Amino acid sequence: MSDLPVPLPPGAAPASAPAWLSHDTLRWADLRLPRWAEPRWPVLALVVTVIAAMVLEPERPCTLADPCGPDWLGMIQMGLAVVQLLWYVRLPELALVSGPVLAAVVAMEEFPLSAASDAANTAVIVALAFGWAASWQRLALRGRQRRLAELATAGARHPLPEDIGPLRRGCVPVAAGLVLCAVAGLAVGLGLRGVHEDEQRAAKAESVSAVVIGHGEDTLRVRASDGTKRTVDAASPEDYDTDSAVTVLSDGDWSRLAAEPYDAFGWQLLTLAAGLPGLTFLATGVLARRRAAALRRGPTPVLRVLQRVDHNVDTWLYAADDTAGRTPLLRCLAYPDLDDRAGAGGPPFDKYEDGDEVEDEDEYEDEPTLDTRLREAVLYGPPCDAGELVIVTAGPDGERVVLVTTGPARLPKADQRPLLEEPVEGRVDRRDPALVERTAVSMRPVDRPVRWGPGLFTRCVALSGVVFVAAVIKFGLDDVRADGLGWHVLPLLGLAFTPGVLAILLNWRVTADRSGLWLAGAYKVRQVTWEELGAVACTDGVLEIRRAGGETWSLSLGWPWMERRLRLRPSYVRAMEEISAMHAHPELRPADESPARDHGLPLGPVLAVLCVLWAVALLIL
């Protein structure tokens, strides 16, 4: 297979389309977000401050003067806080709108709060302001990228290919979003109807004084002033002491506590479960349709680039003169347009692995192999993060193919490379010279140290684990305080090993510099020099770095079966590939030493201390 890019068929590219060359793409690629504006920091700030606000918020007792009732404002507050985390990462356009709305809702707390709770709510508002600024930075970066790419076109514009199909982009998420929003609206209506019916019934009911004589799981047994006994529902029966006085509203066989009106919590939960994904789908679809429609309104900027498809079926774009494919510029999902009469029906595949024609399909048992070669292409639309693009390239047999993006284009991370080899089940060892050479070709020498760490999926799983651990501690301590020591202690004892596991998933790091590798685990940072390094391997999500003397440093970092289904290429696999290439090719190793602060922070001790402080806070508060 030739190393030269597959050429475009004659006449496939507009004559005026300029090449997007490396000297222009370097300026474009240098436009990066400041580190403080990366989505993980607003997400972390909001998670920490919201959890603190929830813990420090004083309990609101249900009284006759201040009945509990459905908390619609609290529902909006909690729903926006949850979905804001996703919008920070995927929809900064929505985060710019929802952030101020959520800040206003937080500031509208009606009942008196403690000083600590006021401070926590203020911290939430500050975190939202920080997230708003970070989202604005992301949108501003996209604008700068578009303007710089348009400068590289030297004014060249051209309509989309005539045989491109109708606008379909965004139809499915818009339809799904409308259905889910309709369900959420119905849930709100049913909840409000339940509240209205309860108010009407309460207005006609007789107010009766009663005394608590017993408790159920979610009921109270009371004795009325006339001596009759009855059972009424209670949200928290433990809040009512035996022999304490309560007021009961009674209307025939209907009765309830006067301090606890109808609770629409079930309808509120359905509203959130349908409304939050509904708004997300709807906004995603509308934004996608707007961007795709903008390409069809008239002549659009065109650039000649190089393109390839990897084994994750991701499309990668490169500068027109980057024939080695060293520096990917954008990554997206792109498939042949269904109405492209000259196009193929899928990504570029070689017909058969051995290249021979087979007349009888039954004689062929192996699946076709994906052709990952670089191909000349024409890019319609200004390239930028979250942009919609149309790509004209060469198909498997050299024919013209029109590709349309089925998702927003994304900027690859600094250490992210296309998957040019077939994924291997189970054990992967990059000591194979051929595979090491393929990885080395896609890399370029760098001065700065190179770092690998957990991806977004792994961090989300780890953060979910942190929330789960906090919940286990809370409910475990509640049971211990209520019932004394017993089997409730066993789950708490089982948490002793979780800080180390969560610390690795949240913040493992491998740093390569001139002297060797720095390996940050749960509790310590180790160094392996290039001379000491023996081999790097990956087995079922476990990264293994071996010293020549036989010592092995291993970390369990992922779930290959889940990552394959989500079409993720884990960072620990990239680390294994690129470290092996650096080991075999000293010229690819970073030229600088890394400062100690870049070696990584073992979070095991930090998480252990936080667990203890959380338990102490629950016992005191």
What does this 3D model show about the protein?
It is built from 14 helices and 21 strands. By secondary structure, it is α+β, with helices and mostly antiparallel strands. Strands 1, 7, 8, 9, 10, 11, 12 and 13 form an 8-stranded antiparallel β-sheet that branches. A 5-stranded antiparallel β-sheet has the order 4-3-2-5-6, with helices on one face. About 5% of the residues have low confidence.
Task: Provide a concise account of the structure shown.
The chain is of the alpha+beta class and 621 residues long.
SSE diagram, text form:
Layout: H1 22-29, H2 40-56, H3 72-90, H4 92-107, H5 115-152, E1 157-158, H6 171-204, E2 206-215, E3 219-224, E4 229-233, E5 245-251, E6 254-257, H7 265-296, E7 300-309, E8 315-318, E9 330-332, E10 334-336, E11 375-380, E12 390-394, E13 400-405, E14 427-429, H8 433-441, E15 450-452, H9 456-483, H10 489-494, H11 498-507, E16 509-512, E17 516-520, E18 525-529, E19 533-539, E20 542-547, E21 552-556, H12 560-565, H13 571-584, H14 604-620
